[in-house]
Amino acid sequence: MEERLIAGVYVDKAAYHFDQAFSYLVPAQLEETLRRGCRVLVPFGSGNRKRVGLVAFLRPYTAEDGRLKPVASQIDDEPIFGDEEFALADFLVRTTFCTWFEAVKTMMPNAFQFQVTASMQLAKPLTEEELEAYPYGERNLLRFLQHARTARELDDYFSADACPSKRSMLDTLQKEGVLVRVEEAKRKRRDRTVRMARLTNDFEAIAESCKLTVKQEEVVRFLQDTQTASKEELLYFCAVGESVLKKLESRGMLEWYEREIVLPTNAPGLQAEDALPTLNEEQQDVFDGIWKLIEAGEPAAALLYGVTGSGKTSVYLRLIDAVVRQGKQAVMLVPEISLTPQIAGKFQAIFGNRVAVMHSNLSVGERMDEYKRIRRGDVSIVVGTRSAVFAPFEHIGLMILDEEAEPSYKSDAAPRYHAREVAKFRILQHKAVLLLGSATPSVESYYKAKAGVYHLFTMTKRYAGAVLPEVYLVDRTEELRQGNSSALSTMLRQELQKNLDRGEQSILFINRRGFRTAVHCLACGEVVRCPNCAVPMTYHKDNGYLMCHYCGHAVRYRGVCPSCGSDLLKLTGMGTQHLEEELAHWYPTARILRMDTDTTSTKGAFTERFSAFARQEYDILLGTQMIAKGLDFPNVTLVGVLNADSGLFSPDFRGVERTFSLITQVVGRSGRAGKCGRAYLQTELPDHPVIQFAARQDYESFYQDEIESRRALMYPPFCDLCMVHFSAVREEAANRAAAAFLQILKEEAETLKKPIPLRVLGPLTPGMYRLSGKFRVQVLIKCHMNKAFRRYLRGCLVRAGSDRAFRGVSYFADCNGDLS
Question: In angstroms, rounded to a whole number, what is the distance separating the alpha carbons of residues 410 and 419?
């Protein structure tokens, strides 16, 4: 008997509790071409609907396999996943409790993914007499299917899965064998191609047997020299019309073909230089220390703690240049899309087209092209946000996470990975170095550096002799007592005017967008809340709408309370739109630039606005977190932080750390080019320790205070936190599932041969107990995220999938994420 092959296939859209490699028989016609890492189309489930799958392994068929479904078709000619990609996907599955295909989709651009489309087609042509035998509705449907000219026309008119009103008619015709269901995998975006011309193999023989015109001879000579050319090139360089090309084609001398093109993504810098920066003594010492780690050829992690303006980016550039000269590759991650244009522009000005850019603000086509350039080895440096950590390099020498403490490095959708942890895994595979950089390192990273797990490097001085800005605390309570209800304190208003008079720029930071952050009814006392979420609606004056910043729900503001109908409404709180209006009132001639998600939603808005501010086309920049970190504007000498204490009482234990970091970083935007900088922090809690530490730019004191608090409360870095989230349309369903999961945790723990140290808290109701129309409940587990715990938790999650208490409930585990 001829030996047959079995393919182990991970299937798209598999539920977590049965996510595994399913066995399929490899058809004889695919045995020579199908390889591990190729995608396939396979029948799945009782209905045998087609799904996209990834071949994880191939092995010989054995008698124990029994009767298996065959692979329907092969999608990829070449494997899209190699050994490293499989290892990385397995790491995500094990550590983030996601499914295999959730990991696969995260690791490649959306444009390369396939989706299954289904349509109905006639099993055989029908005569007019046969059509007349059907009822009116079915007859019209069959007649259309019979005469549809193209697959596109058929799909546009009717999709088997998208027209429920005709479903019964379809089912009947399918059971009778008149219609057949056709399923195929289509890539979400095709490759960019250009139509190219070339001479045929027989062109010389044909040319000898016929007389060519002067213009035809010109085209032939041009193609003999260039081998191939596009239509536009032929028309321009040969000065001919399309009729000449058509004549050569009809004679069999010229043929057309499609050639794939890849366009590089350019990110023009704000203040890019063409030469590598010169390092000062402190920077050189850091460079030398990290370079020794790279030269050692062993995996290592290092933390670069440098004050704002100390020139960390210059060190990054020098290290990357040295790594690339070695023939290796480098990945540079930044936390915000807003930072990418400035950083990428600086890198591209120095390294040219050897740099690829990856972030979510690129179009689907741009992301696809950058991914291809990386995969083909056309570039040696990648600059991007969180997803760039998956850049498909084969010889990584250095990975850098700038502003490594930023929460944006943690994904809040499956797989819920942290870029830092993925980078650690990758440097182990490549024997590379991971460099974490920040002026305000995360408490966890600094603790590991102090303990010797990471190599610690410090830079305590600003570059080129610049000094840290003078910081002043403004007591908002005292301002209110003096009758100043303005968003701006008297002192800050005076300093803004001084900067305008001197032609210097200012930055104002407020961490709320919109005009007013809440609407109160004075009649009934209610706050206007989102009907889908347990949060107040924010008033946006620009469009006259109340908007929810969590689910996007929006209603026009009509000045009437939705609860009691009263018009006694009071707008409270302050957002970027309100601050912009106040600034226009106080400084009517000032050029004001507002930066928040409302003003930067269009493509290229970040680059255009930041470039304009760098060119000093604006006097005052006001905005949210996107302006707080990493940006370098030499003419900025004044920073104002409004509501500096707004994050101190966050339900998340990292709230104080993020408040300290945010204040320290935004203050650091001032006085970066030799000019004296100053910063004003407006707060109602001027004596709070975190505010005091931030005002003094005193990270060491903040760290000592915070690490003792975490030790006492058993928070990271002294343990890991795993939050299991439950959500459902009905509140009792979410509560029932959380209670059932607690019981599963207890029962599974009792079966362990070796006990695992755990502290389980819950069920807990989060501050935002309702989000996007669903009620939320949580179970918090304090643990050590080792192999034994991961195996234990995975068993609990799999068991929950078959428990009736979890029907209609969405649930997932998130490790070391936000507690909110």
Answer: 6
Could you report the per-residue pLDDT of 193-243, keeping only the tens digit for each?
Answer: 678 889 998 888 888 888 888 889 889 888 988 888 888 888 878 888 888
pTM recorded for the entire structure: 0.83
Cα gap 359→347, rounded to integer Å: 15
> Per DSSP, which regions of 385-515 are E strands?
396-402, 433-438, 455-459, 470-475, 505-509
* 427-456 residues labelled b (16+ CB within 10 A) or e (exposed): beebebbbbbbbbbbbbbbbbbbeeeebbb
| Dist CA 6 CA 27 (whole Å) | 9
For residues 635 and 613, give the distance between their C-alpha atoms in angstroms, rounded to a whole number: 10
Long-range contacts of 276-280 (CB under 8 A, 24+ apart): 276/317, 276/318, 276/321, 276/350, 277/311, 277/314, 277/317, 277/318, 279/311, 279/314, 279/315, 279/318, 280/311, 280/463, 280/464
Measured CA to CA, the distance from residue 794 to residue 796 in angstroms comes to: 5
The pLDDT value recorded for residue 149 is 47
Report the 10 Å Cβ neighbour count for 322.
Answer: 19
In the block, residue with structure tokens 């106080």: 586
Task: Give how far Cα 412 sits from Cα of 390, 418, 600, 817, Å.
Answer: 17, 9, 22, 8
List 728's β-bridge partners, or say none: 775
Residues 6+ apart with CB under 8 A from 311: 277, 279, 280, 283, 459, 462, 463
413/39 Cα distance (integer angstroms): 24
Which residue spans within 289-328 are E strands per DSSP?
300-306
Secondary structure in 3-state letters for 357-377? EECCCCCHHHHHHHHHHHHCC
Give me the count of residues in the chain. 820
Task: Calculate Rg over the CA atoms of the chain.
Answer: 31
